[in-house]
Task: inverse folding
């Protein structure tokens, strides 16, 4: 059974095209980077989000709650190092 506490995150589930524009850290304010993001349920208990820009992975998150009635959302950032957890 899907965790009802995470149901509001269902809007993030799917395939997304990304466009990054007007950013101070790009070569110019007119430069654009394109990418792709995917959101999916993991075992009906977590929502996983990952993205790439210009073919380079940029983020990978897993959202969940300690219990179905927990009030705080937990996010685990997955990198090439051990995961970092934050609340």
Result:
């Amino acid at each position: 059974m899907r965790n009802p506490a995470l149901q509001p995150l269902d809007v993030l589930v799917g395939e997304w095209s990304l466009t990054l524009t007007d950013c101070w850290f790009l070569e110019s304010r007119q430069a654009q980077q394109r990418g792709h993001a995917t959101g999916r349920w993991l075992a009906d208990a977590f929502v996983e989000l990952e993205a790439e820009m210009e073919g380079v992975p940029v983020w990978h998150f897993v959202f969940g709650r300690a219990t179905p009635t927990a009030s705080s959302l937990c996010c685990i950032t997955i990198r090439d190092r051990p995961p970092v957890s934050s609340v």
About this structure: The beta strands are 14-21, 32-42, 46-53, 56-64, 74-77, 84-86. The chain has one domain: 4-86. The longest strand covers residues 32-42.
